[in-house]
């Protein structure tokens, strides 16, 4: 279950980075903690 979540999260993150590459470069300091929060929420609802 957790492994599947990690794999799914990685795929989603890669897709987002490809689609929003410039945005992620500008907002890197904000997006990384946001992604960590989203991941924690998915692992521990």
TrEMBL record:
Domain of life: Bacteria
Name assigned to this protein: Uncharacterized protein
Source organism (scientific name): Endozoicomonas montiporae CL-33
Organism ancestry: Bacteria, Pseudomonadati, Pseudomonadota, Gammaproteobacteria, Oceanospirillales
């Amino acid at each position: 279950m957790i492994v599947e979540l990690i794999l799914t999260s990685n795929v989603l993150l890669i897709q987002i980075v490809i689609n929003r590459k410039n945005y992620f470069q500008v907002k890197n300091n904000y997006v990384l903690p946001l992604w960590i929060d989203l991941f924690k929420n998915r692992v521990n609802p």
